[in-house]
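A reminder before we start the practical. When you read a complex entry, don't treat the lines as separate problems. The point of joint prediction is that each chain is placed relative to the others, so the output describes one connected object in space. Small molecules and nucleic acid strands, if listed, are placed in the same frame. In the example below there are two entries. Take a minute to note the order of the lines before looking further.
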Amino acid sequence: MDLLRTEFRKIFPYRTFWAILGIYILLLLLVTSASSSVVVNGEVYGKTMYQFPQIWSRLAYIGSFFNVLLGILIIILVTDEFTFRTFRQQVIDGLSRGELVLAKFYVGLALATFCTLVLLVLGFVLGLLYSTDKSASAIFSQLDAVPYFFVQAVAYMALAMLFGFLIRKSGLAIIAFFVYTILVEPLIHYSLPDTVDKFFPVKVFASLTPRPGQALIDQITTPTEMLTPQWAVLPALAYSALLVSAAWLILKLRDL
Amino acid sequence: MATVLDIHHLSKKYGHLQALQGLSLQVEAGSIYGLLGPNGSGKTTTLGIVLDVIKPTSGSFSWFGSPVSKETKQRIGALLETPNFYPYLTARQNLQLVADIKGADKSNINRMLDMVALGTRSNTTFKGFSLGMKQRLALAAAMLNDPEVLVLDEPTNGLDPQGIAEVRDLILRIGAQGKTIILASHLLDEVEKVCTHMAVLRGGRLVSGGPVGDMLAANEQLVISAPELQPVLALLERLPYVAQFTPAKEGVALTLKEGYNSTNINRDMFAQGIVLSQLIVRRKSLEAQFMEIIKTTS
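Here is the predicted structure of the whole assembly.
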């Protein structure tokens, strides 16, 4: 916990940190409020969109798009330490390489916790505003989408961390992170059968927050096989552990 | 005396470049040890390895007789190459982070800021500092938990003459408290003024090393002249303790063997009826010696 306290001392006075976190929350609010006031067939869409209990999986799905921003934030925090040579100084002053990686992972956990709480609050506010069914069973029955969202945020940040530690330069690392998640892995998926590629990291992460109404789309198009959120949790956590370990190994083998 | 740092046959290769080859040296407690060498001679690589940020290709080292660990690191304060801080944090915030990691007492922060004369600028962000202020902040950070050993890589780099004098004074003061200081520098003058021991590095090898006094004493140079040079030269030829002599424009330059000094020459000249018109003792500067050491081994 000392590690996390020290990390907070670094990031709380950091404007870039607040700017990115601010953009994250702002976008989330903007998209959710905009989509709730869309009028479809003379009916305010928010009413159907934000009904308990489906609201949780819908919000988790919307939020999943912005988890990429959390990845960027982590990459910036990691690569900054290389740029400022502060990783080097901290090892000189007494931290181990493992602690450097662990400290950044803790930041990831803290960020994921914070964003999950934001999502939770948002869900309650929108649900209580628009939902017709406000019974406790409706509110809480599908709340498990929220912890899945948390796992996904952590997993994306673990992947981002690896790129940060591997590449050390913020611009390049961010590009590599994007290219991998939205280009390279989907291309690999394309050439592999679904039974195999559903276990690929980015696809596993995406499985945690499935698109609402995917079943309906699958009836029209060729369905793509994905893990259910429940089944994706363990692989996602395993990937996170693996990615963080890889970051540690990279740091251990290299000069600082 | 206890050995603080023991380096055994350390080597480092960067690709094809052999930055360090088989370096061995010991630093005794209480000494101010100068690591001297031109740029690229392996000083920073050596310090980087013993500070655990650069992986040696082969060889080993120990601090206080143990391998490097959190415990040994807390007994060492170090500044390697550049002052490394978060540019957007103030001097005080930066030192707070260092205090967290080193487990140093918070009250030391103000004391150290005052010591390096940054007390009034403690709430300025690091990026607003001049190079000299950055360097001084790095010194404050290195000394934050009152370490037994200070490792300083080019500590006067980028300082103005007054700053250089202050830092040297600071080093001597810290050294006088019985602390061990390891100082890398390409400034010979600096090592001569500050250090008790020194090692000269070149091309990643140890060229020579020992107490600074010994290395200096071995190389005293005398310049003598007399109205008649001929008998002087004839006598010098016969004196057994004259290591070498060369006639120069202003007289004769000569060096003596160990244990002899200008008194011997003066007495023997006078005994032979030669009255010297000039007798100058020239302590060869370390710079000249340094160039000599480097030349003779290349």
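Discuss with your neighbour: The mean pLDDT of chain A is 90. What might explain this?
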